[in-house]
Specification:
The chain is of the alpha+beta class. Helix content is about 30%, strand content about 25%. The protein is built from 8 helices and 15 strands. The strands form 5 sheets. A 4-stranded antiparallel sheet has the order 3-4-5-6, with helices on one face. A 3-stranded antiparallel sheet has the order 1-2-7. Helix 5 runs parallel beside helix 6. About 5% of the residues have low confidence.
């Protein structure tokens, strides 16, 4: 929400920023009874999981002098059958310090999930993720990913972690340096182009989503079409190795046809690669299996 500018600047309770939760709801307005939910069914045992977010009246919360009459209620059915109630401020915002409670309660609940936006991850987030894989086998995966774009990259390292954690921003490509095979200089990764930065973010996200889910918006952002096949190969192999389910969006024809090349190298399977085309007005997506994706690419059939 902060990345989308959906926040309020406030000094109430020393929070500094509050999430403007109105923008999560239809019509960008909230009132008592406003709610939305996300749900799905587990196909193995047909159990339903659902998370519901709603706005309710406060009951007895008078000890919060600066709070409005509404509370932000989160309820997760299937994983945690209880509600979390977070009071909204007088500006109808959700102070960020209240979100610490949600993170604490849901920290070890369910599978790991990572989300990479079309503008990639912030320097702060990427440094945090890199710290989790340093001196582990997954660190080699990060280097191999960058080598698909620039084969001369020998090693990558984060630098000035505390500095970049406090100053990192969405548009900044800082906090990392690489060493090339033909020199001893430390080269800022920002000097290597958008493709390197994008690949680093994707790889860090997938290794930090082991046994979980990775969501990627516009996965081809910053990547030259010649690098897409290598990108898909790396993601496919890493996803199988680390047991990660990946959902990626794209509007790029080169991107999905590059995916077809990966599908052709593996035996088709129900749990492998699919393209899900979303059409307005339809209740479910149109599914293309691995074999159908390959045929569509060979015959120039549009699947977007």
């Amino acid at each position: 929400m902060i990345g989308r500018g959906e926040y309020i600047l406030s000094d109430e309770r020393g929070s500094g920023q509050e999430l403007d939760v109105r923008h999560l709801f239809y019509g960008h307005e909230i009132d008592e009874g406003s709610k939305f939910s996300i749900f799905g069914n587990n196909y193995n045992d047909n159990e339903r999981e659902e998370i519901t977010v709603s706005i309710k009246k406060t009951e007895q919360l008078n000890f919060f002098e600066d709070l409005r009459e509404f509370v932000f209620v989160i309820k997760w059915l299937g994983l945690k059958n209880e509600s979390i109630k977070l009071p909204l401020s007088s500006k109808e915002g959700l102070p960020l310090d209240y979100m610490k409670r949600v993170r604490r309660d849901f920290k070890n609940l369910g599978s790991k999930t990572q989300f990479v936006t079309s503008s990639s991850l912030t320097s702060e987030k990427m440094i945090e993720m890199f710290d989790q894989v340093v001196l582990t086998p997954e660190e080699n995966l990060v280097t191999e990913a960058l080598q698909t774009i620039e084969p001369m990259i020998e090693r990558i390292a984060s630098v000035g972690s505390e500095t970049y954690r406090s100053k990192g921003s969405t548009g900044s490509r800082s906090g990392f340096v690489v060493r090339l095979t033909d020199g001893d200089q430390r080269i800022p990764i920002g000097s290597m182009g958008d493709g390197i930065w994008r690949m680093l973010g994707l790889t860090l996200a997938i290794v930090n989503a082991q046994n979980g889910v990775l969501l990627v918006d516009e996965i081809d952002t910053g990547l030259h079409f010649r690098a897409m096949s290598n990108m898909w190969k790396l993601i496919w192999e890493t996803a199988k190795r680390l047991n990660v389910q990946i959902f990626a969006t794209t509007h790029n024809s080169d991107c999905w046809t590059s995916l077809a090349a990966i599908a052709s190298n593996d035996n088709p399977s129900e749990e492998g690669i699919t393209i899900q085309r979303i059409e307005k007005g339809k209740k479910s997506s149109i599914v293309f299996t691995e074999r159908q994706v390959l045929i569509a690419a060979e015959r120039g059939i549009e699947v977007r």
